[in-house]
Design a protein that fits this description.
It comes from Candidatus Pseudomonas adelgestsugas. Pfam families: Glu_cys_ligase (PF04262). Belongs to the glutamate--cysteine ligase type 1 family. Type 1 subfamily. By secondary structure, this protein is of the alpha+beta class. The chain has one domain: Creatine Kinase, Chain A, domain 2 (2-Layer Sandwich), CATH 3.30.590. The protein contains 16 helices and 14 strands. The chain starts with a helix and ends with a helix.
């Protein structure tokens, strides 16, 4: 264990400081497709009883009108966060009628591209902006790619903890600068070690054949409509997922916040010839927000992002540059089809220990192409993480993945123990022990269990996923919300519709001007 990590552990273990770890915040965003009783993509609009997808803070849509997204508030106790997510599921199922929430990250059998509905957000300028942005995604990457679903885990450490560490280390920088530097360091370590998360929690080793749309591939054919890689952990996070020729040369620097933000700002401002050729309009209608490498910074796909809550009409990049990093969003977690919500408290407890290790451990700057090597490790585990003898790159040498995984878990163990001590529980250590079992026995990983269940039941990917979807639906529908909680969700839905209506009625300014002002504001951002 590094000297720096030892010092920080000793400091945070003190009676007067350990309670700071109880103030970490946890939020979850869970995406899931709406499907029919037969497991086909629902073609119905976003259900009106769920409220406005534009203004409901808890229930919205992601890319497609059929791709729901549930957003919890950030809470100190992840058990409360998961309880909120559970209530959202139960409310949604009370309004879904005969439809189901797809249990898997990889999509159901999809219709043709033109029949995948893009999410619609109304006639306000911001609603149109979100819609045109999605039209641009369809143009650039295809609609099929946008139907992949996942779980995002939002995590922050309390500002007092960062201040405590800064003062203990005798640094003279202001608290906000130190906090951003520390979060960027966390992100570097996350990129170094997130292959472990893909091994432990990857749950998408197979997919419906319709996903590839006759693209060439090297997947194994399990049946006429199911493809897989035998040792894969997460095809969702592999190079079969989100791909972009335009983004190949875009490699944001994770060595400091300004370099990271500037690389994205420049990408939003830099034309890309194939997009320029297409233009922003077709037959007088907007088809993409601009012809640059990125329409907005959110188009850049990464397994982790630095984040800050934005003010109304504030650009995320500007919020980061002017007010620094507030939390991180880990985006590499597959939906576990065996879990009703796709995630449970055991996963959350380990995530917290892993993220705390990334935050407190040494995090050298990326040099000598290390950033690309971390990406290579990540993709190797995504596509063949359960292959016996798999080698990864560590400090310029090839190492056995299993050996490295055990070593990492041993280093994370003191962080799990510290979190347990802060809360008077044993759940973080128990969660870590459960991961060690998976490292020693790959058949215990979710990805292996998915393939085993499909083989045992003689089911295709689509049949297995629909079966799991219906099992989970039964659980949620058999446990309706208490009347008062149901009423609160319904009131939130009604209020969100009223809020969208008010926004549209009071809209001032032309949409074309709105987009121009957005582009100008990107160019105007200064460090």
């Amino acid at each position: 264990m590094s000297e720096l990590l030892n010092r920080r552990l000793a400091l945070l273990s003190k009676r007067e400081h350990i309670s700071l770890l109880k103030q970490c915040l946890h939020g979850i965003e869970r995406e899931c497709l709406r499907v029919t009783n037969g497991g086909r993509l629902a073609q119905t609009p976003h259900p009106e009883p769920l409220g406005s997808a534009l203004t409901n803070a808890l229930i919205t849509t992601d890319y497609s009108e059929s791709l729901l997204e549930f957003i919890t508030p950030a809470l100190p106790n992840p058990a409360d966060t998961l309880s909120t997510l559970n209530k959202i599921h139960r409310f949604v199922y009370s309004k879904l009628g005969s439809e189901y929430l797809w249990s898997h990250s990889m999509p159901c059998q999809l219709p043709t591209e033109e029949n995948i509905p893009i999410a619609y957000y109304g006639t306000s300028n911001i609603g149109q902006f979100k819609y045109v942005y999605r039209k641009g995604l369809a143009l650039r990457y295809g609609k099929t790619m946008q139907c992949i679903a996942g779980i995002h885990y939002n995590f922050s450490l309390p500002e007092q903890l960062w201040s405590l560490l800064k003062n203990a280390e005798g640094l003279v920088s202001n608290d906000r600068d130190y906090q951003s530097t520390a979060y960027i360091a966390l992100i570097r370590n996350f990129r170094r070690y997130s292959w472990l998360l893909i091994y432990l929690f990857g749950a998408s080793p197979a997919m419906d054949a319709s996903f590839l749309r006759d693209r060439s591939h090297q997947l194994k054919v399990l049946s006429s409509n199911t493809l897989c890689l035998p040792y894969a952990t997460s095809l969702r996070m592999s190079d079969l997922g989100y791909q972009s020729n335009a983004q190949i040369g875009l490699t944001p620097c994770y060595n400091d916040l300004n370099s990271y933000a500037n690389s994205l700002r420049e990408a939003v401002a830099t034309p890309y010839a194939p997009y320029v050729k297409v233009g922003t309009h077709k037959n007088g209608e907007w088809i993409q927000l601009n012809t640059n490498i990125l329409q907005t910074e959110n188009e850049y796909y990464s397994n982790i992002r630095p984040k800050r809550i934005t003010y109304t009409d504030e650009l995320p990049i500007k919020a980061l540059i002017t007010r620094d990093i507030q939390y991180i969003e880990a985006r590499c977690l597959d939906i576990n089809p065996f879990l009703p919500m796709g995630i449970d408290l055991l996963v959350s407890r380990f995530f917290d220990a892993f993220l705390l290790y990334c935050a407190l451990n040494d995090s050298p700057l990326f040099v000598n192409n290390e950033c690309s090597k971390t990406t290579s490790n990540f993709l190797s585990v995504a596509k063949e993480g359960r292959r016996p003898g798999l080698q990864l790159q560590c400090d310029g040498r090839a190492v056995d993945m299993k050996w490295w995984a055990i070593e990492l878990l041993e280093k994370i163990a003191p962080l799990a123990y510290l979190l347990d001590e802060s809360q008077g529980i044993h759940e973080h250590s128990q969660a870590l022990d459960a991961q060690l079992v998976k490292v020693k026995d790959p058949s215990m990983t979710p990805s292996a269990q998915v393939l085993a269940a499909m083989a045992e039941r003689k089911e295709s990917f689509a049949q297995f996923s629909l079966h799991q979807s219906k099992v989970h639906a039964t659980n949620f529908r058999q446990e309706p919300l208490p009347a008062d909680q149901q009423a609160r969700f319904e009131e939130l839905a009604r209020a969100s519709v009223a809020q969208q209506t008010k926004l549209e009625q009071n809209e001032a300014g032309d949409f074309d001007v709105f987009v121009e002002l957005y582009q100008a504001s990107i160019l105007a951002i200064k460090n």
